[in-house]
């Protein structure tokens, strides 16, 4: 008996990288899989690269599993509904949604245009809402279900040139927590994972300096397939009590992230004025201010 026997799973962005690894691992664990992938470039243009989703389906079928391909966009509500319908029509149910689809339009904030911002939020944040909301009635009716949403340390910690991506990925954390709260009474759980993996999503990182090259060399050690076992465990029955959490997976390491909570307080019986805030609060809080770290400043050790 596999951990996902009898279950049906939707994996978005399943044609390559992390999503492909998750789809294959789900199938190995016994799940029937809807493998969604547009088959387009990182920025969302074109569709002439063949059908990565169908290639993944062929791999799953070859190993004796069940899978169907879907080529809709998560950014489109009707498309998201079609993905969920493909699972229900093809396999009679849907038990988990893994929101992995993504795109990139990296540019420094002071040069970023509205289209760059909107395009990334449409896929990551709105896309995660669309697929999750489309599955919600089925999860509610069967009193079970699991969501896994991909966040990023670009949002949790920070990185250069990714204001759109970071905003979407941190928004996904809030979305996941809200889903967990709203749907807990129906036996539905929702969690977020920050995956560390070398994929085409980060293959565009510049290597113009020795420092950049060193960073990329380190990132290339991060295997995309390492994310999948944790996702399977989280969506299976063994993860039934895990909800509302933020994790990260970095090769053989699994992290549980903290969540924002108050760490200092300042009080006055007389009420604050701008002057008293400036005089008393800033200096009092200064030792606890977070520095402008990037992800690499926090995860400084070699992946294991």
From TrEMBL:
The keyword Ribosomal protein does not apply. Residues 7-204 form the Ketoreductase domain. SMART domains: PKS_KR. Keywords: Plasmid. It comes from the Bacteria. Belongs to the short-chain dehydrogenases/reductases (SDR) family. PANTHER family: BLL2957 PROTEIN, DEHYDROGENASES, SHORT CHAIN. This is 3-hydroxyacyl-CoA dehydrogenase. It comes from Sphingopyxis macrogoltabida (Sphingomonas macrogoltabidus).
């Amino acid at each position: 008996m596999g951990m996902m026997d009898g279950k049906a799973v939707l994996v978005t962005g399943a044609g390559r990288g992390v999503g492909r690894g998750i789809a294959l691992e789900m199938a190995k664990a016994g799940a029937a899989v809807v493998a969604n992938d547009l088959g387009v470039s990182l920025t969302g243009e074109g569709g002439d690269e063949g059908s990565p989703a169908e290639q993944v389906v062929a791999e799953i079928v070859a190993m004796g599993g069940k899978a169907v391909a879907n080529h809709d966009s998560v950014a489109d509500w009707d498309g998201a509904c079609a993905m969920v319908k493909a699972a229900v029509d093809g396999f009679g149910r849907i038990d988990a949604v893994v929101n992995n689809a993504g795109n990139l339009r990296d540019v420094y904030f002071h040069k970023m245009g509205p289209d760059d911002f909107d395009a990334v939020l449409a896929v990551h944040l709105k896309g995660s809402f669309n697929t999750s909301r489309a599955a919600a009635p089925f999860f509610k009716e069967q009193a079970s279900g699991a969501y896994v949403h991909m966040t990023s340390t670009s949002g949790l910690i920070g990185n250069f040139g990714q204001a759109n991506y970071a905003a979407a990925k941190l928004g996904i954390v809030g979305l996941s927590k809200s889903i967990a709260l709203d749907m807990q009474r129906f036996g539905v759980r929702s969690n977020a994972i920050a995956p560390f993996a070398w994929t085409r999503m980060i293959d565009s990182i510049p290597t113009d300096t020795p420092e950049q090259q060193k960073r990329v060399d380190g990132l290339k050690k991060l295997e995309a397939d390492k994310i999948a076992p944790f996702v399977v465990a989280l969506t299976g029955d063994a993860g039934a009590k895990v909800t509302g959490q933020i994790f990260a997976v970095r090769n053989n390491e699994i992290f549980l992230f903290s969540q924002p909570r108050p760490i200092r307080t300042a009080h006055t019986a007389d009420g604050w004025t701008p002057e008293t805030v400036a005089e008393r609060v800033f200096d009092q809080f200064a030792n606890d201010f977070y520095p402008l770290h990037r992800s690499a400043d926090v995860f400084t050790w070699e992946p294991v």
